[in-house]
Design goal:
The model has no long low-confidence stretch (mean pLDDT about 95). The protein starts with a strand and ends with a strand. It is built from no helices and 11 strands. A hairpin with a 4-residue loop joins strand 7 and strand 8. The strands form 2 sheets. Strands 2, 4, 5, 6, 9, 10 and 11 form a 7-stranded mixed β-sheet that branches. A 4-stranded antiparallel β-sheet has the order 1-3-8-7, with no helix packed on it. It is mainly beta.
Amino acid sequence: VQLQASGGGLVQAGGSLTLSCAASGLTAREYVMGWFRQAPGKEREFVAAIKWSGWNGGSTYYAESVKGRFTISRDNAKKMVYLQMNSLNPEDTAVYYCAVDLAVMIATRLGAYDYWGQGTQVTVSS
């Protein structure tokens, strides 16, 4: 399984960015795709996740810090997952990673995820 994240960049506070993650080599029928982020000097943290298919497929879960500002979505045909980020603030500055959990329920623990992409840098200036 390979995950390729893209779409990061530099944006002013209040602006928006959309991250994309392309998945290849996934053959499981059910899994969860998630976004995590890691700011300098901090631990990697959960941002959002979406259940890909099966019962309750399409369901989402967000960290409290991004709820109402970020939206995770998927394109089943393209095996892409997106993270639309609005109302960005400097605290959102981090390297953002996409990940896959070969499970049927959304988890927020880093250890639950089986595959990780390389990360894309998001920098929000004040």
